[in-house]
Design goal:
Number of helices of chain A: 9
Radius of gyration of chain A: 24 Å
Shape of chain B: elongated
Strand order of the largest sheet of chain A: 8-1-10-9
Distance between the termini of chain B: 68 Å
Order of helices and strands of chain B: HHHEEHHH
Structural class of chain A: alpha+beta
Number of strands of chain B: 2
Oligomer: heterodimer
Order of helices and strands of chain A: HEHEHHEHEEHEEHHEHEE
Amino acid sequence: MDESRRKFLKEAGCAALSAGCVFPLLSTACSASGQEETRPASLSSQWAMVVDIRRCLNEEVRRACTEACHREHNVPDIPDPGDEVKWIWSEEYQNVFPDQVHAHTATATREAPVLVLCNHCTNPPCVRVCPTGATWKRDTDGIVMMDMHRCIGCRYCIAACPYGARSFNWRDPRDYIERDESGEIPSDYPTRSKGVVEKCNFCAERIRAGRAPACVEAANGVPEGAGALTFGDAADPASEVSRILRERHTISRRVSLGTEPNVFYIV
Amino acid sequence: MRDRSRVIAGLGVFVVLAALPIWHALWAAGDISRPELELPQDESQCIEDTEFMRNRHQDFLNQWRNAVVRDGETEYTSTAGEIHTMSLTGTCLSCHDNRDTFCTRCHDYANVEPRCWDCHVERGGS
């Protein structure tokens, strides 16, 4: 009697232990394989941008890009850096490419200003963490889109983005949008409201109308800025962007993270 | 039960007092009439049937919103076969050019507060 009870308890314990070990492993394996499947297949079209850092050393070029973009999209100009909202702006080389500088990198290189914007990654971490589907990668052209109607302001995407490309609206942006001559909001593009996250949309609304992004147009409008920004379809071998990527030495930000940015830089 | 009349009178007073918010609302509201909306002068027909637009415009606008923002579509073909650009400020407001005397007047009456204008920019408006 005692012998069989002891045996029963032993077997039950072993069974529970093995179940406890095997099931978590199994479920991890399943979810891992599931994640593999959700990785985007290569898109038939992927908008991309090449930034020529040397041509963007000219301050006027960079300012023209930022001003054109921020005016086009009614981006507020909030003086407090903790609350500011940015779509395209300048950062020092050493902060844009922290894995490209070493102990002996020249100061001029370290501190060179570089235009930065959303990278519209092929494997965007912001999209992966968004709980509401407010940000998603558009499968027709690879733009990482934002739907302000669905954003609940949780800021997971801000935490997930390794490039700091996203801004949160801590205040009502309308109070900080520079008005035009007649005192109106300068662009018809909808402003955002307090409590949503925003970022560069690669000018999806202009692309739809067959126009180049505002920053590209603005850069080309400045004498020194011609060719500073090039925009095109990286999936189309005949595009200007593809030609540059084939022929020139280009880098992109923090390649080791595997996000596969679609904004490239000519150093 | 010799207190019956007093109990009933007390209950009556209690009911009147408990329902005070209702009396107050009825008294404070005054005369209520359906809002008079200013309709566009040059147009006689909205994109869809008037009755449908009145009852379902919120769903209709949500459908437009999702089509434009999520699916990148721009054109809507109405039941009558006309093609319209799906745009709140571009299409709807091109006829209903004063939202205060159209949208807001009815929304105030129905006590609903849509958030469209927190973001969408109205030309010549606030």
